[in-house]
Amino acid sequence: MLKVDKITKYYGDFKAVDNLSFTVKPGEIFGLLGVNGAGKTTTFRMIMGLLEPSSGKITLNGNKIDYSVTDQIGFLTEERSLLTKLTVKEQCLFYGTLKGMSDKDILSKLDNLLDRFGIMEYKDKKIKELSKGNQQKIQFITAIINDPKLLILDEPFSGLDPINIELFKQVILEMASKGSMIIFSSHQMNHVELFCKKIVVLLRGKPVIDGYISDIKEQYRKKNILIKGDVDKKFLEKIDGVYEVVEKSDEFEVKIESNDIVSNVFKEISKKSNITKFVVEEPSLNEIFVAKVGESYEK
């Protein structure tokens, strides 16, 4: 288990991370989120042992993270960190060797992954000759080539099309099913909802949202109702408890203050004919993120 226990990090007088705690168990995919400058990168660096916390501690399976355990960690950075003049094979041999792997094991694992990602023909190509999407695949391969027990993924889908996002998703879920602890970070909340059950959202280094996504959505009182039928926007906007109506291609998304308003909206809608859809939905994680982080910015 990864345990982050009350860590704080100062750069001089600037507090980059403020009393942050969370755990990630084997097989869990945990979301660490936040706006730019929120403290995510500093947290990642402390987890990997590249920075020491000013206070608090981080342990992996009960041990302090140092060079004795870093071979068990994989990290895909948001920025490209590939050596572009090397070939794919040379790049992976370099990273695998840093993780204590033998050349034989590296090349065997590399062939499996290149085949899985459909890029075997690029094995002896230089990194700079690859497209951005294929470079991202190689960067991902270097992060997982050592079958890490702890995998940190920072914007892993950058530059990928939907087909390759699905391929990455399958590999990530397989790793979790085999017991890897995974920390997932992305600005795309729909990607976070694909994987994560638990999240922490940082703002100025401090958690503003923390817990299971299902609980966070339940506690957030505002809901959405999808309505399709013989109604217009002005009619919906006049219903008590409705604070916004979004007109989509063939339906309306009606935003309400709380679940208590549903019956009132239904009562008013029932006065109309030809209503073919009335569905109450939880708000999206993106909606909650914008609302909660926005509130905190204003304080």
Order of helices and strands: EEEHEEEHHHEHEHEEHEHEEHEH
Distance between the termini: 35 Å
Give me the side-by-side strand order of the main sheet: 6-7-8-3-9-10
User: What can be said about the biggest beta sheet?
Assistant: 6 strands, mixed
Question: Kindly state the mean pLDDT as a whole number?
Answer: 91
Write out the CATH superfamily name of the largest domain: P-loop containing nucleotide triphosphate hydrolases
Query: How many domains would you count in the coordinates?
Result: 2
In CATH, the topology of the largest domain is named Rossmann fold
CATH class of the largest domain: Alpha Beta
* SS field, number of helical segments: 10
Envelope shape: globular
How large, in whole angstroms, is the Cα Rg? 23 Å
The number of E-state strands comes to 14
In short:
With 299 residues, the protein is α/β, with parallel strands linked by helices.
General description of the model:
With 299 residues, the chain is of the alpha/beta class. The protein has two domains: 2-217, P-loop containing nucleotide triphosphate hydrolases (Rossmann fold), CATH 3.40.50; 221-282, 2-Layer Sandwich (Alpha-Beta Plaits). The chain contains ten helices and 14 strands. The protein has helices spanning 40-47, 88-98, 103-116, 132-144, 162-177, 189-195, 213-219, 233-237, 262-269, 285-298, and strands at 2-11, 14-24, 29-34, 55-60, 63-64, 73-76, 150-154, 181-185, 198-203, 206-212, 223-228, 242-247, 252-256, 277-281. The two termini are 35 Å apart.
